[in-house]
Write a structure and sequence with these properties.
alpha/beta, Aspartate Aminotransferase, domain 2, Aspartate Aminotransferase, domain 1, globular, binds pyridoxal-5'-phosphate
């Protein structure tokens, strides 16, 4: 068996030790005679798995008291609807649009607000600049009475990342952040957010699962039409198990959390992410064969879109990469070119192999 270096934006590569452990435990988890997928979600074995996963997640992110951690379903996209259903409460919400994902969230919120009452405001957008940078503070106009402010802290498609909590807009309204594609890649001051959410398939585990971290005072505001499984308070009151949760996805997420702790936690993970990203951006900035159009201060450490200056070589680039064991490098169709997603599970050696291949390809075709 040969495993490739998989640069997929999501579902993305998982840490190999996690996959090996899951394989070993597939038929018989800890001697109970069946696998995790076959267990009752209310039995003591699975209860131990989910409790440990939550404890490890809380420890990694240093989540303060006063926040619930929910294991929900439907991916981050379902949250685009659930957030206004739960938090709009007939008021107005501000949306910052800095890429495809925050734009989708904004559109969905408009759709929900039209149905349940309330309104949604565009509080800033970089769309006219093709989402190649973050918003500056002077471009953001916030409503001081907003029910919440929504933003996406890492735009997976455009490769734009808000890294420093100090760059958050100054507001007394709760900040709701889609962190799907960079959660657990660096420490975060959770206390600055009302809610953080992340689809699992980028940096946590299998698709379908979505992690929600929500401040207690934001529970219990859902619109009357909100289905029970979509109501944060109902799910919090039921330990995310009003119905059957995605048990296997939670188990894998738990293994990933353990692995992250064994790597030294988020400070150590961040140091590795900085090193990996620097290796790739340095090549993009010094080799005229390639180009990354994102403003340097806004560049994502997780998702690195880039272009070949001669786009007629795209197919040859991808075919050669596949031969070298470097896969899933094709860019998102809305942006074109290439994209290397270098999440926590991508080892430095994988990025080094990519950079070597890119240097070599440029030398051969430049
Ligand atoms: C992938 C992604 C989503 C959508 O996740 P689904 O699980 O497909 O719903 C939303 N936001 C961001 C930032 C993403 O990267």
């Amino acid at each position: 068996m040969t495993r490739v270096y998989n640069f997929s934006a999501g579902p993305a590569a998982l840490p190999e030790p996690v996959l090996r452990q899951a394989a070993e435990e597939m038929l018989d988890w800890h001697g109970v005679g069946c696998g995790v997928m076959e267990m009752s979600h209310r039995g003591k074995e699975f209860t131990a798995i989910v409790e440990q996963a939550e404890a490890d997640f809380r420890e990694l992110l240093a989540i303060p008291a006063g926040y619930k951690v929910l294991f929900l379903q439907g991916g981050a996209t379902q949250q685009f609807a659930q957030i206004p259903m739960n938090l709009l409460a007939g008021g107005s919400a501000d949306y910052l649009v800095t890429g495809s994902w925050s734009k989708k969230a904004y559109k969905e919120a408009q759709h929900i607000a039209a149905a349940i009452g309330g309104s949604v405001r565009l509080a800033g957008s970089t769309e006219s600049e093709a989402f190649t940078r973050l918003l500056r503070a002077d471009e953001i106009s916030l409503d001081p009475n907003a029910a919440y402010v929504h933003l996406c802290t890492n735009e997976t498609i455009h490769g734009v990342e808000l890294r420093d909590a100090d760059d958050l807009p100054a507001t007394s309204a709760p900040i709701v952040a889609d962190m799907s594609s960079h959660i657990l890649s660096r420490p975060v001051d959770v206390s600055r957010y009302g809610m953080i959410y992340a689809g699992a398939q980028k940096n946590i585990g299998p698709s379908g699962l979505v992690m929600v971290v929500i401040r207690d005072d934001l529970l219990g505001r859902a619109a009357a039409v909100t289905p029970s499984v979509m109501d944060y308070r109902v799910m919090a009151d039921n330990g995310s198990m009003l119905n059957t949760p995605p048990t296997y996805a939670i188990y894998i997420a738990g293994l990933v959390f353990r692995w992250l702790k064994a790597q030294g936690g988020l400070a150590a993970i961040e140091a590795r992410a900085v090193e990996k990203a620097k290796l790739l951006y340095d090549l993009l900035d010094t080799n005229p064969f390639y180009e990354n159009r994102v403003a340097p201060a806004s560049r994502s450490r997780m998702n690195v879109p880039f272009l070949l200056r001669d786009e007629s070589l795209n197919e040859a680039f991808l075919a050669g990469a596949r031969e070298a064991g470097l896969t899933q490098l094709k860019g998102h169709k809305s942006v074109g070119g290439m994209r290397a997603s270098i999440y926590n599970a991508m080892p430095l050696a994988g990025v080094a192999a990519l950079v070597d291949y890119m240097r070599d390809f440029a030398a051969r075709h430049g």
